[in-house]
């Protein structure tokens, strides 16, 4: 049996840091976890892939990524520490190690409330503002490059992977050897139209606005705003068609909110929001008045026709690095193909052999209404027969319900509404009740056993000892007062955070400073006893203090 291949970098040293394990790999390189040999601090080390070492353009792009991160100082941007070359000739740089999950992982984990979307968008737009102010365009914004990091009791959003970032200063000088005209870089489903066309000389920060709009579209609908089953089709759709209306996939999204996202997806960059913060403020304004527990989940949305998630195709996952493409050289970008074939008729999806197969859909959705209206128009006799049958079934159901009602001692109200297939049905999305969100905090201290006074926001108080566990429901908070003889008292505040499920908190108590007794000075003899007046004064002072 062949032995598994051992990574030669494992257990090796990069400066004073020892590489302990592999965190992940992508198209350009691999990221490792490393620990300082003495103090134990953990960092992440990104190493350029070995087969790219001889490619000067890729080495230059790797260095450009390090320079881009090094120029940026913001809590929402991953921090870089060092850059260098390993003994085997591969370039590397070190950066802060983050604990948490990507936005892509969060989207797959479950429902996302509108309040959580606003919080994420706020921090991403704030970081993008700094990035654009430094003359840098990210060009690869997607859920996989937005990281939800845990910093103490707070969740901080970090923008990752500046591997294909563009410095606008080089574009103004007309000298950008790494990204020439006609070169396409990035993840196709999140590319802006100008990025998909390879217009690198004129691309601006508005391209990142478009990519961020695709991220919001994906969160709200679980789908992408384009059609396509191959890279060329996806690329061409961006610059030959407008984005698919968001409410075609999820009619439950309020119109004013959908309009903000669709504006960011305009084919003409001038029609998009002018800055990241303008996008955030418009999104925030559109959310005003919506319940904070309104949530979105792709699995709860009926399958649209046709599906924008590459139905029936054996293709990589859209967030996979296999979708990261580079089409270089003059004329290498395929000429815009004729407009892709029109989407399959409603109620069907395309298959690999070109045949159409029916797609299940909800008859009460907007698509179902359109389907039945068309069928009724084409076959009026069948329509009349169907209506008669439907009315008969409704009458029978009403008779059975009334009969059961009469037999019961307790009255039960039954409401039956006649719905004709030919009638336009307007559906109001039903907002599900808020999920029972909970934070679980595990409190540990040094020393191990400390008295803790727990004051809840509801007004209740109780005294407990560490270690202890606390459960906070949505909207709750509490204060913890730590006290132990010989140590200084300390206080911390905990608040409910929708991004936290279980969190451990360690509180170190500081020893109290005890002043040593003052020794009598040699040669001075014994101290004189205080005068009686002083004694009276001392007793009076003590008495006043007690009273």
Task: Give structural attributes.
547 residues, alpha+beta, 6-stranded antiparallel beta sheet, 13 helices, disordered C terminus
Describe the protein.
This protein has 547 residues and is of the alpha+beta class. The protein has 13 helices and 24 strands. It has a 6-stranded antiparallel sheet with strand order 1-2-3-4-6-5, covered by helices on one side. A 4-stranded antiparallel sheet has the order 20-19-22-23, with no helix packed on it. It has a 3-stranded antiparallel sheet with strand order 7-10-11. Strand 2 and strand 3 form a beta hairpin. Helix 3 (114-133) runs antiparallel to helix 10 (276-287), helix 6 packs antiparallel against helix 9 (255-264) and helix 9 (255-264) packs antiparallel against helix 10 (276-287). The protein starts with 12 loop residues before the first strand and ends with a helix.
What is the makeup of the main sheet?
6 strands, antiparallel
- Structural class comes to alpha+beta
| Cα-to-Cα separation, first versus last residue | 87 Å
- Helical content band: 25-40%
Mean pLDDT: 74
The radius of gyration is: 32 Å
**Overall strand count:** 24
**What is the helix tally?**
13
Strand content: 15-25%
- Low-pLDDT sequence parts: 170-182, 299-361, 409-434, 532-547
Describe the strand arrangement of the main beta sheet, using strand numbers.
1-2-3-4-6-5
Shape: globular
Secondary structure layout plus pairing:
Layout: E1 13-14, E2 17-25, E3 29-36, E4 42-48, H1 56-70, E5 80-85, E6 91-96, E7 100-102, H2 103-109, E8 112-113, H3 114-133, E9 136-137, E10 146-151, E11 154-159, E12 166-167, H4 168-172, E13 184-186, H5 193-196, H6 206-221, H7 231-240, H8 246-249, H9 255-264, H10 276-287, E14 295-296, E15 325-327, E16 348-350, E17 356-358, H11 366-378, H12 380-407, E18 438-446, E19 451-456, E20 461-465, E21 468-473, E22 477-483, E23 490-495, E24 502-508, H13 532-546
Parallel strand pairs: 18-24
Antiparallel strand pairs: 1-2, 2-3, 3-4, 4-6, 5-6, 7-10, 8-14, 9-12, 10-11, 13-15, 16-17, 18-21, 19-20, 19-22, 22-23
Helix pairs in contact: 3-10, 6-9, 9-10, 11-12
